[in-house]
Each structure stands twice: as structure tokens, then as C-alpha cells.
Amino acid sequence: MKLDIEPILELDKKHRELLTQVEQLRHEQNQLSKEIGHVTGEEWTAMIKQMKALKTRLKELGPELGLLEEALRNALQSIPNLPAADAPVGRDESENAVAREVGKKPAFDFKPKDYLTLANGLIDTERSAKVAGSRFAYVFGDLARMEFALVNLAFDTLIPHGFIPVNPPVMIKPKVYEGMGRLAGDQKEERYYLSKDDLYLVGSAEHTIGPIHMDEIFDAADLPRRYVGFSTCFRREAGSYGKDTKGILRVHQFDKVEMFVFSLPENSEEEHRFLLSRQEELMQLLKLPYRVVQICTGDMGFTDAKQYDIETWLPGQNQYRETHS
């Protein structure tokens, strides 16, 4: 994307100048409030007049400052994270780089069936469509049990590596969501907003794990602090019209295991590699062929500096599909 930083800098300058002016007026107002109790007569009358003038001026500048603050906040949210120096430069997913392929793709002497056929009634999108609309599903029987078995496998594998298990909230306040950078750019279109409650439904467990220590300060000795969370996630899939309309690859509601780490900035690269290795450990335990894909700048998430996806080989589709990120 192209970003002209000059208008944002000019907006910041105007905001700082007006904020300084407002703070000076408030300071004068506070000083007069302290002094007025110690004067009488004409001096008292003059101070009252001065205080009224200050109040009027602050009332005039308040809305202007509010508009500038909102404009600056919106402008700053239009700036994505800076990509890492070694992130592949590209326009879209076609320019992502395959880092490695692991495992042997199975060979069959017949045409493999797709997962929806193999599920044999364990996935029902017709009944769910009657109840909730498109891109939802009922998952039954052994397939429902398999999901929880996979969640338990993930937790049992990650906890020995120092991860703390957590079931986080699935709703989040707008200001907190904004602070996580998850309403920036076009991400807001993906979110479900509950206007009556002024809350968003999360699109991932990380969205409420990230602010878990909001307004707290870590001791360096307590880092890294690693969490593994499980939650139901909600996404509009706004940009996926016509894609994967059958099955459960793109749905509005799904469950996900998420790893999240608080670390020192200088250790973030090492922790990122550690997280990727844990994902690969899980894939190798499942003995599924997969590939690691480094995402290019044009396809990378708005808040990401570096992004890897793991894509699992699906014989029924004869292609790799993203299962981890």
C-alpha cells in the first residue's frame, strides 16, 4: 500500500498546538480558582470576568480539539505495522514464499473423496442454514469429539513448554479492541458489533488474551509469559463472497487454539520462531503433510511484522489449505 505520511504529520502538529493552548487555558483557570478566595472587591470582580472568558474560550476550543483527536486517531489507525526486513515483498497471496514442505503426500489408486463426503452426515450445513443462515454448521458425533481431542492434544503438548492455559472472554470493549489494532484498516468489516452492549465479538482468542495484562507492568525476569487459549471465534468473512461456499472452511463461527507470548522486544524474533516450531510439532504428531509459507507484505495481516502460515495437504481437494497462522 502507498501511504502519504505528510498529512498525518501536519494533523499531529495542529493537534499538539491546540492541545498546548487548551492546557495553558486550563492551567490559568486552575490558578484563578486557587487565588480568587484570597481577594475581594474590584480584584475579585476582575477575576470572575477573567474566569468567565476562559470558560467561554475552552468551550469554543473543546469541540475543535475533539475533532482533531478523532481525525488523528483515525489517521494513525490507517498506518499498518512495519514489515520485518526479511518479509517477502509482494502484492498478494500469489507472491507468498514456500519456506519448506514436510511429510510425504499420500498416493491413492483411486480419486480421494473430499472431507464433506467422508464426514458422512457428521457435518450438517443444511440444518444450520435454516437456523442461522449460510456459513454455519452443526458438527455431530465422533467429529465433535475429535475437535475436543485435538484441543486437548494441543494443550497437553504446549503446557510442558511453559504455556498457561486460558479460556478468555469472547466479547471485547471497542477501546480495547482498537488498542489491539484489530479495528484498523479493513478489519472492522470482519467484526460483529453488538450495539446494545457496545461490545464486539472476538475474531480470535488472541484478541482478548492480548489485553489480559492491560495497565500492568512486567518485571523482565517474569518474561516470556506464554498463554495457550481456546475460544469460539466470530468473523463476517466479508471478503470471501463466492469462496468455499460448501463445507466448513470459511464459516462465521469456529473454535480455535491460540498461542500468545509477552516477551522483551529484543526476544520477539526468537519467540516467533518458537511459536512456529510448536505448530510444526503438533503437525508432526498428527503425521499430516504440510508446508510452511512465509506471507508477503501485500498479503500480510495489518498488524503483522512477519507472518507464517502452515498449510495442510488435503487429498480430496488436491491442494494445500491454510490451517494455522
Automatic annotation (TrEMBL):
Its EC number is 6.1.1.11. One of its GO terms (biological process) is seryl-tRNA aminoacylation. SUPFAM superfamilies: Class II aaRS and biotin synthetases (SSF55681), tRNA-binding arm (SSF46589). The keyword Kinase does not apply. Transmembrane segments: none annotated. One of its GO terms (molecular function) is serine-tRNA ligase activity. GO terms for cellular component: cytoplasm. Pathway: Aminoacyl-tRNA biosynthesis; selenocysteinyl-tRNA(Sec) biosynthesis; L-seryl-tRNA(Sec) from L-serine and tRNA(Sec): step 1/1. It is found in: Cytoplasm. Keywords: Aminoacyl-tRNA synthetase, ATP-binding, Coiled coil, Cytoplasm, Ligase, Nucleotide-binding, Protein biosynthesis. Residues 162-325 form the Aminoacyl-transfer RNA synthetases class-II family profile domain. Residues 8-35 form a coiled coil. It catalyses: tRNA(Sec) + L-serine + ATP = L-seryl-tRNA(Sec) + AMP + diphosphate + H(+); tRNA(Ser) + L-serine + ATP = L-seryl-tRNA(Ser) + AMP + diphosphate + H(+). Its main location: cytoplasm. Belongs to the class-II aminoacyl-tRNA synthetase family. Type-1 seryl-tRNA synthetase subfamily. This is Serine--tRNA ligase.
